[in-house]
Amino acid sequence: MDFISILSIFVMACFVGYYVVWSVTPALHTPLMAVTNAISSVIIVGALIAAAAPAIGAGGTTARWLGLAAIVMASINIFGGFAVTARMLAMYKKKDR
């Protein structure tokens, strides 16, 4: 595939993702965050493999740095997802009087 095809797929995915996430009702927000956390955990597994690729003789230094960057960004995403989910669930708890 050429660069223009890959770029157009990426741009379309950004638009679709934006409209899907912003059209979710608040009741479905917590399950959506759970799925997002699951996807981010799969990204971390792939990033660990990419970061370890130079150690097993494949890839290069660029793969290691990109894998490290993916691990950091996915970890931030997972932590943020759990924080938002905890806050959303706290909204539904009974308040002590």
From TrEMBL:
Please report the stretch or stretches of sequence annotated as the NAD(P) transhydrogenase alpha subunit C-terminal domain: 7-94
Q: Name one GO cellular component term.
A: plasma membrane
Task: Specify the superkingdom.
Answer: Bacteria
What processes does the entry annotate via GO biological process terms?
NADPH regeneration
Q: Has the keyword Transmembrane helix been applied to this entry?
A: yes
Q: Which Pfam families match?
A: PNTB_4TM (PF12769)
Molecular function in Gene Ontology:
NADP binding; proton-translocating NAD(P)+ transhydrogenase activity
EC number from the UniProt entry: 7.1.1.1
- Which reaction does this chain catalyze? NAD(+) + NADPH + H(+)(in) = NADH + NADP(+) + H(+)(out)
Q: How does it sit in the membrane?
A: Multi-pass membrane protein
**What's its job?**
The transhydrogenation between NADH and NADP is coupled to respiration and ATP hydrolysis and functions as a proton pump across the membrane.
Recorded protein name is proton-translocating NAD(P)(+) transhydrogenase
Q: What is the lineage of its organism?
A: Bacteria, Pseudomonadati, Pseudomonadota, Alphaproteobacteria, Sphingomonadales
